[in-house]
Amino acid sequence: MADNTKKETSHREAGRFYKLHLIRHRIKHGLILHSFFNLLLRVGISINPYWIDEEGLHLCEEPEIRDDPALYNTGPVDKKVVLELYQNLRWNTEELMDRLQSDYQAVGLFRQDALAAFMLMRYHSFTYRGNRIDLSKDEAYLENMYTYEDYRGRSLAPYLRYQGYKKLADEGKIRCYSITQYFNKSSQKFKAKLNARHSELWLHIGLFGKYKRNFLLKKYPSSRA
Q1: Domain-by-domain residue ranges, the chain?
Q2: Rounded to an integer, what distance in angstroms lies between the CA atom of residue 176 and that of residue 194?
Q3: CA distance 204 to 131
């Protein structure tokens, strides 16, 4: 395929009024509580219930793109470009700088040469809010799925996720895990399209960077049974 990094985004995310758009988006998609708890994080208070979800080829069929599929292809995204993408999206890059040294791949979905969506696939282990989970050789962790505003409404995220499952399966990793925050309705809808299953329900409590604890609230039946 063509150089994956040659065409930077000319998307709304780089626009002057993107923050205002985010507010409208969160109201429209029922993300008020999710946004409220994100605001608490800014003053050092974390109250964050979340699921660890199981995903993979064994749970869903291949999603269809609401567009001409011939226009799309998947390919790797260079780690240096991942950092630029985080900066453009105004995401926190502190944790990413450490993660860039770890064993992971970034995968993008391109519409012709334009990056339309991307995600990260991590191996061996993952850590969320101090909760470290070790992975088996046949497991992977998926994070930071993002579809650019100009390409939303075409079911690109489920499609890219499925392509990730296939790539991982070729590497012997047949079971994938991800985090879904309890109040993030958009993420829940996305996972439902892939028939993802809850594995565990956790609660993270953090106070001003001094007290940080994760509590396991519930375990769900495993698909391995």
Answers
A1: 12-219
A2: 12
A3: 9
